[in-house]
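Input (structure):
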């Protein structure tokens, strides 16, 4: 995500830093490079023009040019203005004071409406809500079946009336069903088209009029670049949307949609889709996204992912095992599983400050290594997992054969395990020594 844009912005910032003291001419030359980088990333020209004007105006001020570290000041200004373009602060989903909260999903065909209706329903179910999915796409082949399959996966009911009933009628009846069955959130999956047409928009307007939705969320495919902004602008003009879900941000996208949609429509990006899995959806935080774009990481999102997968009891148990030196290979395997559940490893590494695209360009993150680790440990006996020091050469050969790996792989794992134990012991000692309290370290 944003790799090319991040690379180009980093190069522009390097030129600022290499100058030491900056002149107004230096700033304007750097701004030209930033402007080109944004345009190549498919950011709307109107957005780029206003962004560059604001940053330049602030950057050529005496407070910046006469400061000891003018380059860092310019990076700070760029970060703040990127955040402002994307909405300044997180825009939360509105929850109706008189249930049910009705969320109408709309967008072009293929943008991910159906999948993200299910993702959102699953997200709010975890927060204690009782969502209902309503299948109003009667045109796309197997659309209703797709929603039903997703509903089964996340254990959320799906209301449907087949393909011979008007979508407006299905939406109305779905709302009645939700009220009579105490469903406090309703996600209406509407039909899409390959392009915006009068028939589609009339149908959506009628569904809106009959259900009076709390939120109208437009699902936009970030992969289509500048067209995503045009789609958002048109839907907003005709439906007065309340927010946007940007999907496929885990793909090879240039990032322009994330930087343009909010500015052009005036409506906030509320969620971003980051993959295929049902939990691959995140609330959109403009400040965190700006940090990611600038290669500054996103520690808060990384921590939140860890917290979702790791509860306090697990953390306390882990800390106790580390302190008492009773950390076993089974515990080691559990930590890998927790990390794996947090999502794509390259995305996670990208959230670490300083680990930008340039730093990772030549690094191959081998997610299969976790599978090999799991196979090796599961090929051990319970005694070997608890006391790996008893694993001699003959045991190593047996474990390697059972896991489809080599003795060298087994040796490597055992060495990594011992190094991890030493590192964890040091972390525990440091944390207790410096702060007088126990450590909570999730992986």
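Output (sequence):
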């Amino acid at each position: 995500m944003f790799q090319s844009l991040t690379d180009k912005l980093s190069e522009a910032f390097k030129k600022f830093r290499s100058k030491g003291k900056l002149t107004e001419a230096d700033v304007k030359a750097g701004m030209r490079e930033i402007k080109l980088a944004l345009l190549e990333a498919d950011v709307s020209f109107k957005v780029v023009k206003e962004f560059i004007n604001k940053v330049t105006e602030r950057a050529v001020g005496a407070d910046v040019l006469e400061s000891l570290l003018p380059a860092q000041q310019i990076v700070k200004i760029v970060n703040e203005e990127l955040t402002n373009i994307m909405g300044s602060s997180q825009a939360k989903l509105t929850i109706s004071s008189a249930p049910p909260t009705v969320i109408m999903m709309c967008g072009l065909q293929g943008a991910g409406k159906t999948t993200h209706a299910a993702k959102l329903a699953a997200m709010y179910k975890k927060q204690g809500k009782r969502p209902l999915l309503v299948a109003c796409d009667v045109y796309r082949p197997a659309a209703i079946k797709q929603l039903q399959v997703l509903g089964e996966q996340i254990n959320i009911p799906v209301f449907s009336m087949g393909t011979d009933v008007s979508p407006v009628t299905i939406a109305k009846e779905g709302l009645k069903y939700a009220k009579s069955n105490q469903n406090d959130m309703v996600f209406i999956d509407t039909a899409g088209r390959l392009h915006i047409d009068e028939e589609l928009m009339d149908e959506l307007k009628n569904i809106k009029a009959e259900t009076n939705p709390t939120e109208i969320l437009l699902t936009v495919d970030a992969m289509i670049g500048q067209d995503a902004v045009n789609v958002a602008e048109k839907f907003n003009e005709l439906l007065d949307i309340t927010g946007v879900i940007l999907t496929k941000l885990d793909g090879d996208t240039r990032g322009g949609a994330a930087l343009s949609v909010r500015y052009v429509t005036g409506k906030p990006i509320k969620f971003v889709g980051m993959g295929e899995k049902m939990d691959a959806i995140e609330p959109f935080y403009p400040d965190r996204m700006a940090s990611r774009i600038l290669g500054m990481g996103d520690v808060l999102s990384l921590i939140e992912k860890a917290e979702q997968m790791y509860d306090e009891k697990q953390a306390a148990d882990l800390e106790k095992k580390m302190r008492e030196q009773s950390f076993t290979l089974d515990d080691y395997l559990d930590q890998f599983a927790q990390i794996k559940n947090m999502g794509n490893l390259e995305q996670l590494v990208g959230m670490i400050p300083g680990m930008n695209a340039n730093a990772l360009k030549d690094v191959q993150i081998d997610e299969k290594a976790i599978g090999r680790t799991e196979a090796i440990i599961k090929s051990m006996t319970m005694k070997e997992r608890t006391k790996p020091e008893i694993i001699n050469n003959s045991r190593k050969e047996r474990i390697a054969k059972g896991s489809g790996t080599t003795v060298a792989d087994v040796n490597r794992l055992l060495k990594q395990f011992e190094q991890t134990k030493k590192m964890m012991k040091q972390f525990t000692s440091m944390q207790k020594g410096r702060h007088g309290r126990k450590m909570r370290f999730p992986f």
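Notes: The chain has three domains: 3-85, 101-296, 302-435. Strands lie at 101-106, 131-135, 158-159, 185-189, 215-221, 243-247, 269-273, 281-283.
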